[in-house]
Design brief:
Layout: H1 23-30, E1 51-52, E2 56-57, H2 73-80, E3 86-91, H3 97-103, E4 106-109, H4 128-133, E5 135-140, H5 143-153, E6 178-181, H6 192-207, E7 211-213, H7 220-234, H8 239-245, H9 248-261, H10 266-289, E8 292-296, H11 314-321, H12 327-331, E9 335-343, E10 346-354, H13 359-373
Parallel strand pairs: 6-7, 6-8
Antiparallel strand pairs: 1-2, 3-5, 4-5, 4-9, 8-10, 9-10
Helix pairs in contact: 2-3, 5-13, 7-9, 7-10
Length: 382
C-alpha cells in the first residue's frame, strides 16, 4: 500500500515503504473500500504459525492458546473477531487457507493468473517458484463476500504480465455436478474429527443435490513432494539472506523444512518441472470427470503456540497436517475454504477445489455448504 511499509514481519524491513499500491489495493480503493489496518504474518511468510520478529504473536480469537495458522494469520484473526469484513493475503503453501481453517473464516485461493500481483518493493521480479505457485486473494466471513471481492479484484493488470482476462463464469457443467469427496488424503494421518467434518460436508452436499462420490485425485503424494522440493530448491538458495532477516526460531523452522525435502540440484529442479507437468495431466483428467473436489484443509486440529518449532521432527508433523493444501499450489488450481462448524471449541472446515479458472464452481459449492451449515463468525474473542 503506497506510503505504508511492507515489512514481511521482520525488523530489517520496517522502513520498506511502498511507492505504489498493489493492484488488489488499487482496485479495492477504486471500488470504495477503506483500508483500516495492516495485519501480522510470520517472518518472511515462511511459517504456518503467525509469530513475527517485528510484531510478535498473533492470537486466535476462538482460543488464545492455539495458532491462527499462517502466513495470513493476522487477517483471519481480525475477520473472526469482527474487526473487518475483508482481508487480503497470498498463498504459495496455504497462506490463505491455513488461517481460514484455523480461525473459521472463508478464503479464496484463485487460480494462477486470475488476480494480478505486483510489488513496488524489491525484488519486484521474484523467483520462479513464486511466479508459478504464489497467488493473491481475499479472506472474508462469508462465501458471498468472496464472490463480491473476486469481481473487484480479478482481471489483467499492466504491472502483472501473466494476469489473464478469463471470464468469471465458465461453461455450464453437466448436472448433477459430480463432487469427489476426500476424507483421508494419501500420504499421512487424519484426525477423526477432521475426517468426520469432511464426511458431514459430503452429506450436506448430497442433500443439496450434488453427486458426491468417495474418490481421491491421483498422485497426491507426488504432488506434495514436488511442491516441497521445488520450494527447498529455489528458496533454499536464499538461506543466508533469510538467516540475516528472520528470528532464530523462524529460520530454524525454515531450515528444517529445506532439510526435510532435501536440497535439489539444478538438474533435479528441471526434473521437478517435468514431474509437475505429469501430475497436472493426471489431475486435469480427474477434474474432467469430477469438476469439484472436497477435502480437509488441515488434516489435524489447530496446534498450540510454538508447537511447530519445539523439536526438529515438528516439520514432518506440519507437512502431514497441511498435506492436502500444497498440491493446489503446485497445480495453480482455485480453492474456496469454507467453515463447516465447530469441534471441541475450535472451527473446522473444508476446501472446495476446482479446475483452472473455475472459481465459479468452487464458490457455488462453498455457498451451498454455507447455506446448510450457517456461518460461525464473528465471535467474541476468548
Amino acid at each position: 500500500m503506497a506510503g505504508q511499509p511492507t515489512t514481511n514481519g521482520v525488523p530489517a524491513l520496517a522502513g520498506a515503504i511502498a511507492t505504489l499500491d498493489h493492484p488488489m489495493v488499487e482496485r479495492l480503493k477504486a471500488a470504495g473500500a477503506i483500508p483500516i489496518g495492516r495485519t501480522n504474518l510470520p517472518d518472511m511468510a515462511l511459517r504456518v504459525h503467525t509469530d513475527s520478529a517485528l510484531y510478535g504473536l498473533c492470537r486466535n480469537p476462538w482460543d488464545s492458546r492455539v495458532t491462527t495458522g499462517g502466513s495470513s494469520g493476522g487477517d483471519a484473526s481480525a475477520l473472526a473477531a469482527g474487526m473487518t469484513p475483508l482481508g487480503l493475503g497470498n498463498d504459495i503453501g496455504g497462506s490463505l487457507r491455513n488461517p481460514a481453517f484455523c480461525c473459521g473464516v472463508a478464503s479464496l485461493k484463485p487460480g494462477l493468473g486470475r488476480i494480478p500481483s505486483a510489488s513496488s518493493i524489491e525484488p519486484q521480479s521474484g523467483a520462479l517458484v513464486g511466479q508459478m505457485m504464489a497467488v493473491q486473494g481475499p479472506m472474508t466471513r462469508s462465501v458471498g463476500d468472496l464472490r463480491l471481492a473476486l469481481r473487484i479484484l480479478a482481471g489483467p493488470h499492466p504491472r502483472d504480465p501473466w494476469s489473464f482476462p478469463a471470464p468469471l463464469e465458465g461453461p455450464p457443467p453437466a448436472r448433477p455436478l459430480k463432487v469427489a469427496l476426500v476424507t483421508n488424503p494419501a500420504g499421512g494421518t487424519t484426525d477423526a474429527g477432521i475426517a468426520a467434518s469432511v464426511e458431514k460436508a459430503g452429506e450436506e452436499l448430497t442433500a443439496a443435490g450434488y453427486a458426491v462420490e468417495r474418490v481421491a485425485p491421483p498422485m497426491v503424494e507426488e504432488a506434495i513432494e514436488t511442491w516441497g522440493r521445488w520450494l527447498a530448491w529455489e528458496l533454499g538458495l536464499q538461506g543466508e539472506v533469510f538467516r540475516q532477516l528472520m528470528s532464530a526460531e523462524a529460520f530454524g523452522f525454515w531450515e528444517g523444512f529445506v532439510k526435510h525435502f532435501g536440497a535439489p540440484t539444478y538438474a533435479d529442479g528441471v526434473a521437478l518441472m517435468v514431474q509437475r507437468h505429469e501430475i497436472a495431466r493426471a489431475w486435469s483428467a480427474f477434474l474432467a470427470e469430477y469438476p469439484i473436489i472436497v477435502g480437509p484443509t488441515w488434516c489435524q486440529p489447530q496446534f498450540a503456540h510454538g508447537y511447530d518449532v519445539e523439536a526438529p521432527g515438528r516439520v514432518a508433523d506440519i507437512v502431514n497436517l497441511m498435506r492436502f493444501v500444497t498440491p493446489m499450489n503446485l497445480l495453480g488450481l482455485p480453492v474456496v475454504c469454507v467453515p463447516t462448524g465447530v469441534a471441541n471449541g475450535l472451527p473446522v472446515g473444508v476446501q472446495v477445489i476446482g479446475d483452472r479458472f473455475r472459481e465459479d464452481l468452487c464458490l457455488e459449492v462453498g455457498e451451498a455448504l454455507e447455506r446448510r451449515v450457517g456461518t460461525i463468525t464473528p465471535i467474541d474473542p476468548r
